[in-house]
Hydrogenase expression/formation protein HypE (Candidatus Aquitaenariimonas noxiae), 333 residues
Amino acid sequence: MNIITLAHGSGGVLTHKLIKEIILKEFNSPILRELTDAAVLKVGKNTIALTTDSYVVKPLFFPGSDIGKMAIYGTVNDLSVCGAKPLFISCGIIIEEGLEVDVLKNVIHSMKEASFVAGVTIVTGDIKVVERGKCDKLYINTSGIGVMGQNIKLSIDNIGIGDKIITSGSIGDHGISVLSAREGINFGGSIKSDAAPLNKLISKILRAGGVRFMRDPTRGGIASTLNEIAEDRNFGIIIEESSILVKQGVYAASELLGLDPLYIANEGKIIVVVSKDSASRILRIMRNDKLGRDARIIGEVVKKYSGKVILKTKVGGSRIVDMPQGELLPRIC
C-alpha cells in the first residue's frame, strides 16, 4: 500500500486493511481493537459510550436529507446500536473559502432541527476555513457521548447458532438518493435518503430483551455489516433474497448502473441479531414504530459456512456475499 485511494474509504476490504495494518498497529488500545461503532468506557461508577464520525457527502443537499442531518443522525445511531442513550454532540466544521453564507446557515439549521428530533444537545465545536480549492465546500466531524443502559452488553460474542437476522426496512435508499442528486439522474419514483435517528426505536428493542448485537449498515451496505459480524467466527450467516426489501426505484437504478443493493449505503436502518425465541416479539415491536414498519427477518446464523455470508437467491440458487472490494459510490456519507 503506497497511496490512499477512494476505495480505502468504502467500508470494505481496503478500509479494514487500512485500519488493521496502520491504525491499530500504532493505536494499540484494547478498547479500539473491538472496532465497535462506539467505545464503551468506565468513568468512575458510570459507563458511557463515545463515538466520532466525519461527513464528506457530495452534494451537501439531496432528496430526503443533507450533510447536517446526516452528521447528527449518524452519530446518534452509532451510540444507540451500542446500547447507549445519546446525550451530547460536538461539531467541527471545515469550510472552503467562497462558500455561500446561506449554504452554511441551511446546514446549521438542519443540524439544529435534527438535534431536536433526536433529543440530543450540541455542546461544543470548532470552525476552520481553508483556501479555495482545498476543500469541497464543507466537511463536518461530529463526536457524541451517551450513557449506557444498565445490564446491556451487546457483542458479536453473544451471537449463537439459530439466532435470527432482522433489518428495520428497505435497503439502498440513501445511496441511490445521493447518487441521483450528484449525477442529476431521475431514476423514476420518489427515492429519498432514509437518514433518521434510530435511538427511540432501538430503546424499544432493547427493553424487549433477546438482542445479541446490532449495527447500522452505512458504507458498504448490509453486505459489509454482515461480513463484519461473520468474519473469523465459527458460524456463518444465511440471508434470503426474497426477504430483503428493495424499493422499486432503488432496484431499477441498481439494474441500470450495475450495482448490487446489498452493497449500497443506508443511513436510517439497523441490522439486529436476536435470539430465535425473541425474534417474533422484536419484529412486532419494530413494526409498531414508523422507522421499523417494514422490518423483516432476512436470515439466520448457521453452523456451516464459518466466517461467510451466503445469499439464497429468489431462483433457488446461492452465492457468497463478499466484503466490498472497491469503492462503488464514493463520498456517500
About this structure: The chain has a mean pLDDT of 94. Residues 156-320 form a domain with the Phosphoribosyl-aminoimidazole Synthetase; Chain A, domain 2 fold (CATH 3.90.650.10). The CA atoms of residues 101 and 107 lie 10 Å apart.
